[in-house]
Design a protein that fits this description.
CATH superfamily of the largest domain: FAD/NAD(P)-binding domain
GO molecular function: iron-sulfur cluster binding; oxidoreductase activity, acting on the CH-NH2 group of donors, NAD or NADP as acceptor
Pathway: Amino-acid biosynthesis
Keywords: Amino-acid biosynthesis, Glutamate biosynthesis, Oxidoreductase
CATH topology of the largest domain: FAD/NAD(P)-binding domain
EC number: 1.4.1.-
Bound molecules: flavin-adenine dinucleotide, iron/sulfur cluster
Number of strands: 20
Protein name: Glutamate synthase small subunit
Length: 487
């Protein structure tokens, strides 16, 4: 434990943000990091609990009290070793994770929890700055070859682990750049893409081969995968959800992912023909999740005239709801930095029609307010509130409705079974599909989720592949019982 009285002496401190008026003029990150002295104090707030509930909150099983202690001692390099022993990419989670560990932190019962995510980010940034993060190529190669399809956080974590076990790993990615949703979903202002490239340089130096613009099952025959000893499918859950609403095909109704991807490509100098722009437009973002929030931030940066957000669910409470007590993930209103940049948020509202002019261009949205009727034993029922119909002026409607599941191409061409939610079927903890040498991990196996889960599944799947190929594995991970193994 860093300092016995640390949690009594010091209040929680978080990174601050550059002013809204400045940050909406660009697409770069806008956080102002804490000073080392402040981070050391934050580390000392950790109580080194007998039962560290933060562990149970973290899908990776990060050794949180241990790295908090090292930071408090000023032992940054040791903190980095501890952090990297369970997490391949703390620079991604340190920026983007909703931090379930903090929601489970024991200090959170009576005070603000330990600022674990900030500590994590500070450790890894310090480690990169000091040159402590170096390629670790395997000393011995096994002659086993592995193909990984998809280069999101799941694919990258699996690749690094399997390469470190000595296998020869090739990662196939259909996009023109590596990173999955980290690259082309999440905007540059939430995570600058140089952060991915910095890690990628390490992975390449370790000997992993990356092949971009290779769409397995489309411009690369799935038969070619048979040349590998094992395959890990990490293709994400990218089948977009739409609405069965009249006018959905109007010019001006756009999928959030197209809008976000185009903008990131433009930031990196690509020319996009007929780029969808919010500039000077009345924008309505349909969907109140992370993707919706990213669309709001991007619309404001593009200079939208107005930005409105619709969510069909009720407004969550401002504080932890009694239905989700500590240490559970709380049902609670989330206000992101993008929300703070300007948006009118509306809950319990449903879109009835996308209205167009004679040329088929979107001009307005017709909506109605709704309520959810809860009948025990039945699915909640959506009820329209009479007399609440409203027309909203709108030139650009962005559909941020989430994803229905993984795309079907690979499952069909390889003969992989799918579960009731259309995800690629493989038991949690085993990751093996119905074809023995084909494994799957990340959003493709569990459905749309989080980066931290993708990294966790990539690591665990790697261990299972290693056991499948070699009969045993020294790769460290959290096993199916939730215990850390191999450390
Ligand atoms: C807009 C947006 C914002 C988000 N923000 C956050 C956030 O702030 N924090 C957070 O924790 N999570 C966030 N998420 C969720 C998070 O990004 C995902 O859970 C995570 O990226 C899943 O990782 P993955 O590796 O399983 O799949 P993905 O990241 O989806 O990567 C899959 C990759 O596989 C490739 N691929 C698919 N099929 C093929 C094929 N046949 N051949 C070759 N390549 C293929 C795809 O092109 C893609 O690059 C966000 C998601 C979105 C959409
Ligand atoms: S639960 Fe909070 S206070 Fe306890 S060990 Fe984990 S980070 Fe420290």
């Amino acid at each position: 434990m860093g300092k016995v009285t640390g949690f009594k002496e010091f209040e929680r401190k978080d990174e601050s943000y550059k002013p809204v008026k400045d940050r909406v003029k660009h697409y770069n990150e806008f956080t102002v990091p804490l000073k080392d002295k402040d981070i050391i104090e934050q580390g000392s707030r950790c109580m080194d609990c007998g039962i560290p509930f933060c562990h149970s909150g973290c899908p990776l099983g990060n050794l949180i009290p241990d790295f908090n202690h090292m930071v408090h001692q000023g032992e940054w390099q040791k903190a980095s070793w501890i952090l990297h022993s369970t997490n391949n990419f703390p620079e991604f989670t340190g920026r983007l994770c909703p931090a379930p560990c903090e929601k489970a932190c024991v200090l959170g019962i009576i005070e603000d929890p330990v600022s674990i995510e900030n500590i994590e980010k500070s450790i890894v940034e310090r480690a990169f700055k000091e040159g402590w993060i170096k390629p670790q190529p395997p000393k011995v190669r096994t002659e086993k070859t592995i193909a990984i399809v998809g280069s999101g956080p799941a694919g990258l974590a699996a690749a690094q682990q399997l390469n470190r076990a000595g296998h020869t790993v090739t990662v196939f990615e259909r996009d023109d750049a590596i990173g999955g949703l980290l690259r082309y979903g999440i905007p540059n202002f939430k995570m600058e893409k140089g952060i991915i490239d910095r890690r990628l340089a390490i992975l390449k130096a370790e000997g992993i081969v990356f092949k971009t613009n290779v769409n397995v099952g489309v411009n690369y025959d799935v038969e070619e995968l048979k040349k590998f000893d094992a395959v890990v499918l990490c293709g994400g859950a990218t089948e977009r959800r739409s609405l069965p609403t009249p006018g959905i095909d109007a010019d001006g109704v756009v999928q959030a992912m197209d809008f976000l991807t185009q903008q990131t490509k433009v930031v990196f100098g690509q020319k996009i023909k007929d780029q969808v722009l919010a500039t000077g437009k009345n924008v309505i973002v349909i969907g109140g999740g992370d993707t919706g929030s990213d669309c709001i931030g991007t619309s404001n940066r593009q200079g939208a005239k107005s930005v409105v957000n619709f969510e069909i669910m009720p407004k969550p409470p401002g504080h932890r709801s009694p239905t989700t007590p500590w240490p559970y993930w709380p049902l609670q209103l989330k206000t992101s930095t993008s929300h703070k940049e300007g948006v009118e948020r509306n809950w319990l509202i449903n879109t009835k029609e996308f209205v167009t002019n004679a040329k088929g261009k979107l001009t307005a949205l017709k909506t109605v307010n709704v309520e959810w009727e809860m009948i025990p034993g039945e699915r909640p029922k959506l009820i329209e509130v009479p007399g609440t119909e409203k027309t909203w002026k709108c030139d650009l409607a962005l559909l941020a409705l989430g994803f229905t599941g993984p795309e079907s191409t690979l499952a069909e061409k390889l003969g992989i079974k799918r579960d009731a939610r259309s995800n690629y079927k493989a038991e949690y903890g085993k990751y093996q599909t119905n074809i023995p040498n084909i494994f799957t991990a990340g959003d493709m196996r569990r459905g749309q989720s989080l980066i931290v889960w993708a990294i966790s599944e990539g690591r665990e799947a790697a261990r299972q592949v290693d056991i499948y190929l070699m009969g045993k594995s020294d790769l460290a991970t959290k096993n199916e019982e939730g215990d850390l193994v191999g450390l």
